[in-house]
Design a protein that fits this description.
Elements: H1 6-30, H2 47-53, H3 56-89, H4 96-108, H5 111-129, H6 137-162, H7 165-173, H8 178-189, H9 191-207, H10 210-215, H11 223-231, H12 237-272
Amino acid sequence: MIQPSRSLRFTFLGIGFLFLYIPIISLIVYSFNESQLVTVWTAFSFKWYRALVHDDELINAAWLSIRIAVFTACASVVIGTWAGYVLARMGRFRGFTLYAGMINAPLVIPEVIQGISLLLLFVEMAKVFGWPAGRGLFTIWIGHVMLCISYVAIIVESRVRELNPSLEEAALDLGATPLSVFFAITLPLISQALVAGWLLSFTLSIDDLVLSAFLSGPGSTTLPLVVFSRVRLGLNPEMNALATLFIAFVTVGVIGANYVMQRNERKRLTNVL
C-alpha cells in the first residue's frame, strides 16, 4: 500500500486547519475594526468593545446564559456519571435495553421535538399543579440538562469500560463498601472524563438556541436568542467583539483544563511507579 509523503500529509493538514480557523481569525481581526461595516476595514479601534460594555441587553443575556450553563454542566455531570457507570458496570439487567435507549434518546431526537415536548409538559403541569408558574431560567435548565446528560453518560461509560476492574474488586475484598469504592477509586480514575463532560455540557448549554427558544419566557432571553434576533436584521461589528471575548474565554478554559488533567495524570503515573 502506497503511503502519502510527509509533505503531502502536512499540506492537507494545513489546508484543513486553514479552513477551520481562517473564519475565526478574520472575525477576531474585524472585531477591532472602526467601521460599522463588518467586511470593510478602516482603522484599528476598540470602539465595539466599548459599545459592548454599555449594551445592557447583551450583558444580561450573557450572564443568564453563563449561569444556566454552569448549573447545567454541574447537574449533567452528577446525573450522567451515575448513568454512565450503570451502563458500564451493572451488566445487562432487566430493562437494560430500555434504560440505554432512554439515555441515548436525546442524542438522536431532534431538538425541535424535545423543545415542543417539554413546552407541552410544562404547560400541562402549570394547568394541573400551578407549577411552573412561568418559563424562565429553571425550565431552560431542565431542558439543557435533559440534553447534556446523554453526552456525559457516553463519555463516562467509555472511560469506565477502560478501567481495570481488579482495582475496584481489590478494594471490595479489603472490606470497602461499593459506595466508598466508587468515590475513593473510580471517581479519581475517571476525573478526566468528568472534566471533559463538564466542558462539553457547558458548551452545549451556552450555545443552545432551539431548546431555549421553546422554554424561555419574558425576562429570560439567553445570549443565543439575542444574537440570533440581531443577526437576522444585519451583521453588527459588536457581535464580532462578543464572539472574540467568548473565544478568548473558551481558549483559556480549555488550556487550563488540559493543564490540570495532564498534571493529575503525571501525578497518578508517578504514584503508580
